[in-house]
Amino acid sequence: MKLKLDLHDIYNRGDEIEKALHGILDEAIAKKAPLIEIIPGKGSGQLKKRVLRFLDQKEIRALYHRVEKDSDNFGRVFVHMLPKNSKPSRKGKRHH
Predict the structure, then answer these.
(1) Domain assignment present for 93
(2) Contact 77, 52 (CB under 8 A)
(3) N or C, fewer C-beta in 10 Å, the chain?
């Protein structure tokens, strides 16, 4: 299952972009979706940069495995979520 978020309609409304990104991440976690496709569109690239900055925040990075920029389509980003049963790794684990 892949979730899709198209940002074309709200590209110029900053607060709605953040809400939409949080919403799709929450939905992916709730539905255990392994992949999110985010479409910031091609444009000037500013929206894509904003999406990548959002995804690069520490608390957001803990929710996914990796981000893939589509090599065939500049206006598309894939977010690969953590496997269903894995939890974000914690630094400072004790070794026995």
Answers:
(1) no
(2) yes
(3) C
Q: How confident is the model at residue 86 (pLDDT cuts 50, 70, 90)?
A: low
Two tokens, residue 66: 């990796």
> The domain spanning residue 42 has which CATH number?
3.30.1370.110
User: What does the pLDDT read at residue 35?
Assistant: 97
Over residues 16-39, the pLDDT tens digits come to 999 999 999 999 999 999 999 999
Residues near 88 by beta carbon (within 8 Å), at least 6 away in sequence: 62, 63, 82
Domain that holds residue 12: 2-81
| Predicted structure pTM score | 0.81
